[in-house]
Design goal:
Helix content is about 5%, strand content about 60%. By secondary structure, it is mainly β. The protein is globular.
């Protein structure tokens, strides 16, 4: 079957290998480094979010690429995506891409493109243009994605899109910040998949549109517009107002109120309303640090209760040696929620994690979580037989080793069990990476993971080779496979992929990025192409 997208798409990808990526300005200081994570002296109060991408620069040279894995109020831990040299405390990391994941429920009608947004996030390298009164950063981009389905179903899919991620700080010389994050795209299908999904459709998303004032040192802060309530775990997005006041040191408190964006399309609505208040505690002395938060949140559909709950969050750490984190949500059930849940107070979510650094090159970590589904306005009419309130419990352990010769090893074991099931799901993974393989800047990695559950068994492996072919341009090639087997009838499936990625800067903040992927096997076969051109402010 002939490809149904232009051959120029492959040329576009090849061109990206030729050029170099640009450089960014420093933003956040590295506090300390473990064998697997890098810890920043900044957190959610500084607009960092889980999934944000950062780059460490030293003397105009790219040292490493990071991704935020966890944020507290004034600290964050990051996974190391790529390392070309040793990271040291005091290095500066700049935000190169803001996470576009939102905490409202996803739009399930656009799941046909499972990986397209991932490469975009990695592409958005930010630069700042300073003036006496304001600091601008962000990017604007146009993207085209196409999947050429070469199976019998012939479900080709295309998606042209554009996105804006823009921030202006210190407006009028004051601590005023304006933010906007938005995306518009068009889904184009060869035919109608099902009645609820049209053949062609436009979708527009405004993820954030806000103005804020203040920083953690000022007595009063506020945010207004479509804002992220990152001061409270699980509060998500609202269209409204947040006010925070610094109380007697080290306490601060705040309140927020607004409406919830429609979870299917992020449109403004007035029926869903959210209110809450919180108290924060932040103490740091001699390498010891404690951050705590307690909050109460109410969600309503007009005057009808949707959910009311309390949040508790604590983090205690000592430099890079060890740290403990805890987060919990307790639902307060009143009126119809008490009738459905059968109890007034119910623990709906608990997460505990701990890390301990045995040496500068060995880090161990363990985490435990349990959670239940909870009744909301949207699920109150669901039949009891269809509502799953079984407790899900999970345990995960990690071991990270940084070895000589630029070698790194990472291992993980996971255990998950639902209280209504007799057997648990076990998962395993191991990865090995080698930096500066043969040539400086060339990185090779291999990862293998497997799982075993009551219904299916499966495994996945991938080998990746990438590097800076020019001073500032990065390209990589990956080959991998995924296989699984149904226990009931011993039916097995397997597919393979070959993927080529590249990114570069062509001229004066204009960048290009491309990805080509070929898939074949039992699940599906086809070709995927993604191209993007953008401008960094």
């Amino acid at each position: 079957m002939q490809m149904k997208f232009p051959n120029a798409s492959f040329v576009f990808l090849v061109l990206t290998i030729i050029f170099a990526m640009g450089e960014s300005q420093a933003a956040f200081r590295i506090k300390y480094i473990s064998s697997e994570f890098v810890y920043l002296d900044a957190g959610s109060a500084d607009s960092l979010m889980i999934g944000d991408k950062l780059t460490i620069m030293r003397k105009q040279v790219r040292i490493a690429d990071l991704e935020v894995a966890f944020t507290a109020q004034h600290s964050a831990s990051c996974k190391i995506l790529l390392s070309q040299a040793k990271i040291i405390a005091g290095d500066q990391a700049i935000v190169t891409a803001k996470a576009e994941q939102v905490e409202i429920k996803p739009d399930t009608t656009s799941m046909e493109m499972p990986f397209a947004t991932e490469i975009i996030e990695e592409a958005q390298v930010k630069k700042e243009r300073r003036s006496p009164s304001a600091i601008m950063s962000g990017s604007i981009a146009v993207q085209y994605y196409h999947f050429d389905d070469q199976s019998e179903s012939n479900m080709d899919f295309s998606q042209p899109s554009s996105r804006l991620n823009f921030r202006v700080r210190q407006l009028w010389g004051k601590e005023i910040t304006f933010k906007v994050r938005a995306r518009t795209y068009r889904n184009e299908r060869t035919r109608v998949y099902r009645s609820t999904v049209p053949q062609d459709e436009w979708k527009n998303r405004i993820y954030e549109l806000s103005i804020s004032y203040g920083n953690k040192e000022l007595p009063m802060n506020f945010k207004a517009g479509r804002i992220v309530v990152n001061e409270v775990s699980g509060a998500g997005f609202i269209d409204g107002l947040l006010i925070q006041k610094k109380l007697s040191n080290p306490f601060s408190g705040g309140v927020f109120a607004g409406t919830q964006p429609e979870w299917r399309n992020s449109k403004f609505q007035t029926s869903g309303r959210k209110f809450g208040g919180y108290l924060l505690y932040d103490w740091d002395k001699g390498g010891w640090r404690y951050e705590g938060a307690v909050a109460g949140v109410g969600e309503y559909h007009y005057a009808t209760i949707s959910r009311e709950y309390l949040c508790f969050q604590n983090e205690y750490s000592h430099q890079s040696k060890w740290g403990v984190f805890q987060s919990a949500e307790i639902d307060i059930n009143r009126n119809w929620r008490r009738d459905r849940a059968g109890e007034t107070i119910k623990l709906s979510n608990l997460y505990i994690s701990a890390r301990y650094r045995l040496s500068s090159n060995i880090l161990t970590a363990v985490s435990f979580d349990n959670r239940r589904n909870y009744w909301t306005y949207d699920t109150q009419t669901l039949a009891d037989s269809l509502f799953d309130d079984a407790m899900r419990q999970g345990l995960q352990t990690n071991l990270s080793l940084r070895l000589p010769w630029d070698l790194a090893v990472y291992g993980r074991y996971g255990y998950n069990k639902r209280e209504t099931e007799s057997d648990a799901t076990h998962s395993y993974s191991i990865s090995l990476s080698k930096n500066n393989l043969i040539l400086k800047g060339l990185r090779a990695s291999f990862q293998y993971s497997a799982f075993s559950s009551l219904i299916t068994d499966g495994h996945h492996w991938a080998a990746n080779l990438g590097g800076y072919l020019t001073k500032n341009g990065y390209s990589s090639v990956e080959y991998g496979s995924y296989a699984y087997e149904y226990q009931v009838d011993a039916t097995d499936r397997q597919y393979f992929w070959l993927r080529l990625d590249s990114q570069m800067e062509v001229y004066n903040r204009i960048y290009l990025q491309g990805q080509y992927e070929y898939d074949w096997g039992d699940v599906y076969s086809g070709k995927k192409v993604l191209m993007e051109i953008g401008y960094r402010f």
